[in-house]
Write a structure and sequence with these properties.
79 residues, mainly alpha, 3 helices
Amino acid sequence: MSAMNKAKNFKKSKTGLYVSLASTAFGALAVAKQVKLARSDGDTLRLVDAVVSAVGIATGLAITYRELKRLGDDDVLLG
């Protein structure tokens, strides 16, 4: 298998999904920090931006979880 094919299939592998999950978690931390800053400054526009980002992160987590369930149907821990 060529390196290009491996790279294309990485995101659909279990390892790729775990990396995606971890990067999404770091994004969630950044959004939480943004919400805290927006609230302390009273910046409504920044707060709205943080909420929209949080919705995107939640959607990304849901998609990643669905893909993990597909890959791990035989895995006892994933259900």
